[in-house]
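User: Hi! I'm a student and our assignment asks us to look at how structure tokens line up with a sequence. Could you show me two examples?

Assistant: Happy to help. In each example below, the sequence comes first and the structure tokens follow. Example one:
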Amino acid sequence: MEDQLAENDLVTDLRTAMRGATRRLSGAPVTPLREQLADLVAQSEPWLDGYPDFYGDGLVATLERRVAELLGKPDAAYFPTGTMAQQVALRCWAAETGNDVVATHPLSHLELHERHAYRDLTGLRGRWPTLEPRLPTAADLRTVAEPFGTLSLELPLRDAGFVLPDWDTLAEVTAAARERGARIHFDGARLWESAAHFDRTLPQLAGLADSVYVSFYKSLGGVSGAAVAGPESFVAQLKEWRHRYGGQIYQQWPAVLTALVGLDRELPRLPEYVAQAKTVAAAFAEAAADFPGVHVYPELPHTHQFRLWVPFSARTMRAAVIGQIEDTGLGLLDRWAPGQAPDSAFSEVTAGAAALEWEPAEITAALRDLLTRARSGGSKD
């Protein structure tokens, strides 16, 4: 118990230290609420003369139309959370197909981060075409003996390292699912930045699926919220179930404004972030050459996010980050989680606007310094 309390204190200390960093590489910006509100007002000028939404009209409807247009779908429904959006979408497809089986992945968000809501709240059943740390292939689907009504694909598969298949593999697996009479659902919490990997437009990518879930805070900088796009009749069902699940909220304009701002400001920059992630990963790899057991995955990131693996404990890395900030003002990586092997850890690296301000040599030098501190137990040599 004491060890856990000490660990929690260290996590809190790391968050506090990152707020004081003079320069950050990865992670969401840490700014006071007053500054965030002032920025939101400045960026929301086109909508400020309008009126608040009431139970899904106004700005909510505006955002829904915008998302449908961006993804090339007939309609879209806004949800306060992605977990709600996912389970409502899957249960609606199950009702339409008459099949309660969902083909998904053991590392998917459905299984690891939503408390199995699709199963425990909707009564659906999951089947795993593959256990490999990648998206399933058409051949994998053909090994699933039981008929399934929906194939849910998380793009990218975050807990495998933000990995994506190539375009032909994705097209083949969706075609194989349709051959079996299944609907295709994209868990696209990070879909916005995935189009660059495929060298396709968002409508081309979304066109492979019957429904697409997207998030407004994971890559676009919104405070919360999600949407599911698809056929008009399907979206009408989503909105019925949204109300039943408690998602028909009286007013949601603060979150919706941040989503609209994100679509205007961040969405056009995501290809630039994806390109910078490759630069950051290469700079990290150069530093890692001096530290056995340190590596980036994927070596060439598929999106603007990837993982850095180290042969040190998460506790050691947090202490090293805090020490580096105190000595240099540089806040390199803000989150560390334990790896599967003893005394190993990983960080999820996000190349956003802050990362664009770093030169490769600066990144390499900063990571070398951080790893040197970790090798010394979290302190500077």
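Example two works the same way, sequence first and then tokens:
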Amino acid sequence: MSKIDIGIGEKDREKIAGGLKHLLADSYTLYLQTHNFHWNVTGPMFRELHLMFEEQYTELAEAVDDIAERIRTLGVPAPGTYQAFAQLSSIKEVAEIPPATDMVEILTRGHEQVVKTCREVLKSAQEGDDESTVALVSDRMRVHEKTAWMLRATSQ
């Protein structure tokens, strides 16, 4: 592959991509949790939560692709294994099938964690003058902040 010359130095590209790897791992882990809860939710709010979780995991599936492609655009390999995601993610897997109310709480915390990860990536993207990553990460923050709000509103 030819040399990358997009106006962002190699060290900055690697640092930004490193942060994006964490964002990708968090997003993928949250995607898996959301899909798992979609399949396994039960109780009086079944239909509402089943449909909400489907909307959320569908959105996350597109997001992980966008994040991985940004990492590749910066010239760095994107992680793509469960092992790599487990090492990089700040979101821990849930082994059991929790009650629906706990699912909502777990996903709320997951979305809030992704927002925190976004904030870290945003700093390095701004320092590296990488407006494309800034735009991507800012968009992701808005989605996760809104989703966390909607999940919190469901549990009140």
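Here is something you could point out in your write-up. The chain has a mean pLDDT of 96.
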